[in-house]
From TrEMBL, chain A:
Keywords from the UniProt entry: Cell membrane, Membrane, Transmembrane, Transmembrane helix
Family affiliation: Belongs to the NrfD family.
Name of the protein described by the UniProt record: Molybdopterin-containing oxidoreductase family membrane subunit
Membrane topology designation: Multi-pass membrane protein
Transmembrane segments: 36-60, 80-101, 113-133, 160-182, 221-240, 260-279, 300-322, 342-360, 367-392, 412-433
Keyword Transmembrane helix: yes
Broad class of where this protein is predominantly found: membrane
One Pfam family this sequence matches: NrfD
Originating species: Mongoliibacter ruber
GO CC, alphabetical: plasma membrane
Keyword Amino-acid biosynthesis: no
Location(s) in or outside the cell: Cell membrane
TrEMBL record, chain B:
UniProt KW keywords: Membrane, Transmembrane, Transmembrane helix
UniProt protein name: Uncharacterized protein DUF3341
Any Pfam family: ActD
InterPro entries per UniProt: ActD
Biological source species: Mongoliibacter ruber
UniProt KW Membrane keyword: yes
Record field: transmembrane: 57-76, 96-120
Length: 454, 176
């Protein structure tokens, strides 16, 4: 019954049937965990535990534990915050924007990419919360709650407050979008399971019945959520960039920031999706679902967004010169040729030059090279945020207060903590949740799968 | 015979065969209870004669509530309850209120719509579905016909119709 298009490359290889899809994805959830998985989880939990020492020390002693000084008030914390939020953006882009554009190749990767979004946003949100110093009082500083000062409200003119609303809305809407799509797949596992697993997945499946009426409503909900999530994801990194752009610090006060940050976010996010998916497809033997074609398409997104980021770097420099403002010009010359030149040129190499290698088909269809370059892009994007934040601050308006930033063990440890948290959550997800959206794959198996060999 | 208890089920392997079957069966005057599928079949709701979902309207209304709530809150807090001079700007600075207004609009629209969807489709944690056939979450489409609603046609004839339209199996299912 299957029809293979002669125009498009098949999205699913290996002549899979509907039953094969159910089996291939559900067996990861049902089978005993592999040694490799246990080892990976152990390393992640180890990083989490080790990082927790730094986190606890920071909460106990205060953020004086970090390498911040009176000139550089923001450094690794906000760098990590922006980096993690940026990584999250690819998940929403894949699941919402590509849904609106009817890009069916998203179906193999959207579940894991959305999970990545949610975990990355959790890691991101940790940094501003810790940076409050006394996070247990933070609710009064961040949310408009009635308080004993009269009520003295939060400042709605501040981009930092906009961030609170943007990040929390982004997190909760992404979570709902992700969970709604998980319900039918939990029902699949429920209907195959017995015993305790059946009890657990019954609870998670919310009483899904698969009726045509429910599916019809479900499709409507998905479409509207995608429509809402698309401007939402663009707004989130725009608002993150406002944290800098609305200030009057040379190097931050630029109108190019919102589009430049959004492109950078998608760029780094796709790199992280590639890092995770290349490992996941190998470990869980999902090569028929996440094909070289998928990897190639993601690499093309990386070329595009990487080039946008590259143009933004050059535009920034041009505008700094063209503005004729000496402070602005100095900020940029100092970025490239000052004491932090190595950070700037690491960023340029990793973000502007390395993704251009994907113009070669051999490179963008090579799994090993893609994996390496995806790590390079992630490193580059961390440096981008570090460069923007630290180099713009470290030589401020008074040369007598010029300083350098040196991270302490607590800076490194808290960053390690978020890595541990992210990978622990991701590995737990990969084992106990269906990593590929089964029902979406089933809906395209007739039109986009290779012919059955049987 | 009591309604909503005894069903005859047609099992279909292929979504296109199923779509034709639904069209043909409805033409003969049989009332289909519901069709259960492992994945969304595009156009199935139309051939079944379902109305378009009104969930977008729910989303719009909840979004509107979000917008109103956000603007009211910000103007009340910043302009009326405790006006403060911040950077010499106007207390009521609409442009500065747009980001939070947008976020709350999206938040309420999304949560409101999903809430309505869950109530309408009876989805809740620990919810129990009435399962006609375990394979409907795997690889089979199942058309359920309520015997009580089609008493005039008769069970045997219904089975024939199902088989004739391409059902690979015809089963019976009763619920207490």
């Amino acid at each position: 019954m299957q029809v293979t298009s002669s125009v498009r490359e098949p999205l699913i290889t290996g002549g899979k049937t509907l039953k094969d899809v159910t089996h291939d994805i559900s067996r990861q959830v049902e089978g005993k965990p592999s040694m490799l998985w246990l080892l990976a989880l152990l390393v992640s939990v180890g990083a989490l535990a080790l990082g927790f020492i730094a986190l606890a020390a920071t909460l106990w002693e205060g953020i004086g534990m970090w390498g911040l000084n009176k000139t550089i008030g923001w450094a690794w914390d906000i760098t990590n915050f922006v980096w993690w939020v940026g990584i999250g953006h690819a998940g929403t882009l894949i699941s919402a924007v590509l849904l609106l554009f009817r890009q069916k190749w998203r179906m193999a990767i959207n579940r894991a990419a959305e999970a990545m979004t949610i975990f990355a946003v959790i890691c991101a949100a940790m940094f501003p919360i810790i940076h409050m110093g006394r996070p247990w009082l933070g609710a009064y500083w961040a949310l408009p709650l009635p308080n004993t000062f009269g009520s003295l409200w939060v400042n709605f003119n501040s981009p930092l407050l906009w961030d609170v609303f943007a990040i929390s809305t982004y997190f909760s809407v992404s979570l709902v979008f992700w969970y709604i799509a998980l319900i039918p797949d939990f029902a699949t596992i429920r209907d195959r399971a017995t015993g305790l697993r059946k009890v657990i997945y019954s609870a998670l499946a919310f009483g899904w019945d698969g009726a045509a009426k429910t599916w019809s409503r479900f499709e409507t909900v998905s479409l509207i959520l995608a429509g809402l999530a698309t401007p939402l994801v663009l707004s989130v990194h725009t608002i993150v960039s406002f944290d800098f752009a609305t200030s009057v610090i040379p190097g931050w006060h630029t109108t190019i920031f919102p589009p430049y940050f959004v492109a950078g976010a998608i760029f780094s996010g796709f790199a992280m999706v590639l890092t995770l998916m290349i490992v996941t497809r190998k470990v869980f033997k999902l090569e028929d679902y996440i094909t070289i074609g998928h990897i190639e398409l993601m690499n093309i997104v990386i070329i595009i967004t990487g080039s946008i980021v590259g143009i933004a770097y050059i535009t920034e420099f041009f505008i700094a010169w063209y503005s004729g403002v000496a402070a602005e010009q100095y900020a940029f010359v100092n970025r490239a040729f000052g004491p932090y030149w190595w950070a700037y040129w690491s960023m340029m190499t990793c973000n502007v030059i390395s993704p251009q290698l994907f113009w070669f088909k051999k490179i963008r269809t090579s799994i090993v090279l893609t994996f390496i370059l995806s790590l390079v892009v992630n490193i580059g994007m961390w440096f981008e945020r570090f460069v923007i934040i630290v180099t713009s601050l470290h030589r401020d308006f008074l040369p007598s207060s010029w300083a350098m930033f040196y991270p302490t063990w607590a800076d490194v440890g808290v960053y390690l903590f978020t890595f541990g948290l992210f990978f622990t959550l991701f590995f737990l997800f990969a084992k106990f949740f269906p990593v590929i959206n089964m029902f979406e794959i089933k809906s395209i198996i007739k039109s986009s799968s290779t012919k059955q060999s049987k | 015979m009591e309604r909503d208890k005894n069903f005859i089920l047609g099992v279909y392997d292929d979504e296109d065969v199923l779509m034709d079957a639904v069209t043909q069966i409805r033409k003969t005057g049989v009332k289909i209870h519901e069709v259960y599928s492992p994945f969304p079949v595009h156009g199935l709701d139309e051939v079944l004669g379902y109305r378009r979902s009104r969930l977008p309207i729910a989303a719009f209304i909840f979004g509107l509530i979000g917008t109103t709530l956000a603007l009211t809150m910000q103007f009340y807090m910043m302009k009326f309850d405790w006006p403060m001079i911040i950077g010499g700007k106007d207390h009521a600075s609409l442009p500065a209120f747009i980001p939070v207004t947008f976020e709350l609009t999206v938040l309420l629209a999304a949560f409101g719509m999903v809430g309505v969807f869950m109530v309408a489709s009876n989805l809740k944690p620990w919810g129990q579905a009435r399962i006609f056939d375990l394979r409907i979450t795997d690889d089979k489409h199942v058309m359920a016909i309520d015997l009580a609603n089609n008493a005039s046609i008769g069970e045997e004839k219904l089975a024939d119709v199902l088989k004739l339209t391409g059902a690979t199996e015809v089963n019976k299912k009763s619920f207490e």
